[in-house]
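Supplementary Methods S3. Input chains for the assembly prediction are listed below.
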Amino acid sequence: MNALYAALKAHDLGTANVGLITDIVACPGMDYCALATARSIPIAQDIAKRFADPDRQQLIGELGIKISGCINACGHHHIGHIGILGLEKSGEESYQITLGGDATENAAIGERLGPGVTGDDVPDTIERIVDIYLAERQRGERFIDTYRRVGLDRFKGAIHATDA
Ligand code: SF4
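Predicted structure tokens for the full assembly:
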């Protein structure tokens, strides 16, 4: 295992972020898929840059983000703790955000947070969601646990009125 890690690290692929907020699943999206209605990979990169600090990632703890670039849902956004679905609205990309998805034995489909947001506003929106979680969480509680306890409405302020 150490040899594998060393080989990955040599190619800058050894980031120790399994299960954390930057361990994002994103489908190919508009960059590589002819069916896409929006980009996925650049959105994932923007979120990963926003939460790049390893200490902050550890502080936030287990949190899975999944992104799909169209309704075919190859990124399985509907079962992400935070799901992001890229759509096209009046010729512009619009990202619909869902919360509470889960692919474990407590399986759940994410609930829609509110109106779609622009691609530029996705990182800020994720940050506001995380801030609400950190304000609400009880000792040792994961994001999904806090979400289930406090419910969707507590997070609705994360979507700002100026969003698309
Ligand atoms: S979800 Fe849509 S954009 Fe993403 S890989 Fe599947 S078909 Fe392509």
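Strands lie at 25-26, 65-68, 82-89, 92-99, 111-112. The longest strand covers residues 82-89.
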